[in-house]
Design a protein that fits this description.
Length: about 325
């Protein structure tokens, strides 16, 4: 793994820099991407710095992308944040640049890039970007930069509730507050849901299947989304909802896509679930992962596997 100093040295070498992140981005993907782009632009105003990928409708308030052409990739430094593996990078031209850097906090199962910095102990990639800036004489943590990074950290720590939140995470967050970032406004925006999404939360408790082991799952299919007037992106707003139930230890939500397959969201309050995700075309953190199920039968198969994981974990605690 490379050092922050090596990464900053590389950044200084290139006049064109393209920063990417993963598909279907969450606040940490967008926050780390935009925060890094902003601090580089402020430190090196003569560099051309672009952020690429596809916009996410529900997160346009946080960050939007720019058009990145094939010509832009020529002789460019490409930096990918918050993306564990190459297929998930939200622009498959990422290899067309002159040099590639990976900055991430997920398990390093796909060690791509000419340089890489991966810290699985960090709460988020946004926290890593804050540390990168802190290590540098050129890059500065300004209020504009902190805005993006705070949103990223809040998103990936579940408002500082998840186990990945450390003393260092809180210290970094304190720096953002000291700079005057309106943390309440960001928190309120991230908590905001539509009436249709609220109705989905209510429906979720009706369709959630809870096993006596503490494993649970729900299928949010196309007919339900059509009935409630929501899309697949909006359906993601209820991913954390089952975790509020006393009876639930680990859970899956299957959101059906237009092609009939299911985007699987896996969450846990103890049992490790990322190995299960890896078996089904996915991966992620030990307690928060994503996968793909090709059919409802595969969804049910995954639930059987999840029940065993939770049961074995409970036995190991005794």
């Amino acid at each position: 793994m490379n050092s922050f100093a090596e990464i900053i040295t590389t950044i200084k070498k290139y006049d064109k820099i393209i920063i990417l992140r993963h598909q279907n981005p969450d606040p940490d993907a967008l926050g780390s991407q935009a925060g890094l782009a902003t601090t580089i632009r402020q430190a090196f105003p003569n560099k051309k710095v672009l952020i690429g990928g596809n916009n996410t409708e529900g997160l346009k308030w946080l960050s939007t992308v720019q058009e990145v052409t094939d010509a832009d990739y020529k002789d460019a430094l490409v930096i990918v944040t918050d993306t564990a593996n190459q297929p998930r990078i939200d622009d498959q031209r990422f290899g067309d640049g002159a040099f590639l850097i990976k900055i991430d906090h997920h398990p390093n199962d796909d060690a791509y890039g000419d340089q890489l910095f991966v810290n699985t102990n960090a709460s988020s990639s946004s926290e890593i970007i804050a540390d990168l800036i802190d290590s540098s004489d050129e890059l500065q943590l300004t209020k504009d930069v902190a805005y993006y990074l705070y949103a990223g950290i809040v998103g990936d720590t579940g408002r500082f509730l998840y186990p990945a939140t450390t003393q260092h995470t809180m210290e970094v967050g304190g720096k953002f507050i000291a700079l005057g970032v309106d943390t309440a406004a960001i928190n309120n925006k991230m908590n905001e849901i539509t009436l249709q999404q609220a109705k989905l939360q209510g429906n979720l408790f009706d369709i959630l299947q809870i096993d006596e082991s503490g494993a649970a799952y729900a299928v949010i299919d196309l007919p339900l989304m059509k009935k409630l007037g929501i899309n697949q992106e909006q359906a993601n707003s209820v991913v954390s909802t089952p975790g509020r139930l006393k009876e639930v230890r680990s859970w899956m939500e299957a959101v059906q896509k237009d092609d009939g397959t299911f985007r699987m969201h896996l969450r846990s309050q103890g049992p490790i679930i990322n190995e299960l995700a890896k078996k089904h075309d996915g991966g992620g953190h030990p307690l928060a992962s994503g996968a793909t199920a090709k059919s409802l039968d595969e969804v049910k198969q995954m639930f059987e596997e999840l029940k065993k994981i939770v049961t074995d974990y409970t036995k190991s605690e005794k």
